[in-house]
Amino acid sequence: MTQPKSVLHGGYHTNVSRSWQAERTLNKEMLMYPIFITDDPNALDPINSLPDQYRIGIDRLKAFIEPLYRKGLRSVMLFGVPLAEGAKDPTGTNADDPKGPTILAVKLLRSEFPDLFVACDVCLCEYTSHGHCGILREDGTLNNDLSIERLAKVSVAYAEAGAQAVGPSDMMDGRIEAIKKALQNAGLAHKTMLISYAAKFAGTFYGPFREAANSAPAFGDRRCYQLPPNARRLARRAITRDMEEGADMIMVKPGTPYLDIVREASDLAKDYPIAVYQVSGEYSMFYHAAKAGVFDLKTVVLESMTGFLRAGATVILTYYTPHLLDWLDEQ
Ligand SMILES: NCc1[nH]cc(CCC(=O)O)c1CC(=O)O
Ligand SMILES: [Zn+2]
Ligand SMILES: [Zn+2]
């Protein structure tokens, strides 16, 4: 009779012993819910490309968040979506409009939900007429200096309104340093977390988001500032650079196709919280595949969360947050 020299099976024969194999298990505090705030105060518009997700007006926001907060929602990432005629211009003037949806939403959420951590995505693409994430030169290429100056100003405005974190997703060079300095000069650095989307890759997975946020570029694409999908080493350089510039958290995005980068980030930035963003394309992919009977939605989403944790993530941004708050209670 041949017997294997080593027997691993005995170590994970039961539910309990299987649970002991994890270095980390999912809890509600790990989840950050990305939400879209629009400028029509009464809107609660379903987003076609992101089933079960909404563009929410300021007057609907409290009622939208309340039940989730009661279930244990502890953090959100806000995206402003201006839809009004004439809301966009070449420099994204409305990004820090004090009467704009993002700033109003920050104030409302901070005053209504004391234990909710409110983060704001910082970018210009939702607010620029050309749809790019920075300010452009005459020839259509990025003006990096003007862009980071503008992004720093917008970040300070969000922090001043009460945002506990700002997350620049524009991928300009030097934005982390510029924003950190601006927060320091404004006396806000000590209470504002700077989340660097350090390793954000250009690619196909943001399609549904761009429909949701009405932020597709009017010409060209984002390949000159977001990272090439093949670029593991460039991602490592961007992560190291952003740590040196003063980031408080490192994010990788998209998630599922870039788990190796999550592991790279958690190795490189081992003393930092590591966030992973399960982006719109991943959300919709799972949703539609489950609908088509490929697999059970809850099972596959929980498995994808396990993958993020195994790769080293400590914070997960996902549109499945509302589902997960329920699923975690069922377990
Ligand atoms: N810069 C804006 C931004 N911030 C987050 C996402 C994508 C999020 C998602 O797909 O869920 C994007 C889109 C993009 O870069 O085109
Ligand atoms: Zn952008
Ligand atoms: Zn180019």
From TrEMBL:
Classification via InterPro entries: ALAD, ALAD_AS, Aldolase_TIM
Decide whether keyword Oxidoreductase is in the record: no
Give the GO cellular component terms, alphabetically.
cytosol
| Keywords from the named record | Heme biosynthesis, Lyase, Metal-binding, Porphyrin biosynthesis, Zinc
Q: List the PROSITE patterns hit by this protein, alphabetically.
A: D_ALA_DEHYDRATASE
Q: Which reaction does it catalyse?
A: 2 5-aminolevulinate = porphobilinogen + 2 H2O + H(+)
Family the UniProt entry places it in: Belongs to the ALAD family.
> What protein name is recorded for this chain?
Delta-aminolevulinic acid dehydratase
Q: Which organism is it from?
A: Circinella minor
